[in-house]
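Changelog note: in this version the structure field was regenerated for every chain. One regenerated record is shown below for reference.
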Amino acid sequence: MTNHPVRFFPALLLLFALPAAAASSELLPSARRLQTTPEQFAPGRCVVYGERGESLVAPEYFVRGRVAAARVEERRLAVCPQVAGKGFEQYSRDEFNRLVLAQPCVSADKYVRDIQLGIVRLRVAQWETPHARQAATAGRLYRGMFIDRELKEGMEIELEADLLGTCDE
């Protein structure tokens, strides 16, 4: 019995299809932004992350700094952590932080998938954070903290590119 090349064709197709499938993970807006406007995230560029306070027009709380690095990273979206018996609005700061650190995440196993994120690492220069108790579960900034880390000049934090704006030099 001779091996016929056509018999290996399905195996070859599978072999070539696997890398293509892996490379076709969903691009989130942050990854698209890094790909379409990389100059906005060049090392040394000024960027700002802002959160709204009482003002509905402009961010009241912010972290401003300079880009240290930017990359597109593949990640598996997992199911978001939940606290039994509590709605999101009832979370403590620690419970809220656990959720933020898991993001982006999905609500159920059926939505788990591979995605690509645009991540920007920035070196912190300035910040303003809320202190009111109701702000504890309103955003990443709270009482001098970025999520669960005390903000310090020169420290590095990472955010998705689509959450950042550019700032004046």
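Spot check on this record: Strands lie at 26-27, 46-51, 61-77, 113-128, 141-142, 145-146, 149-150, 156-160, 164-166. The first helix runs from residue 9 to 23.
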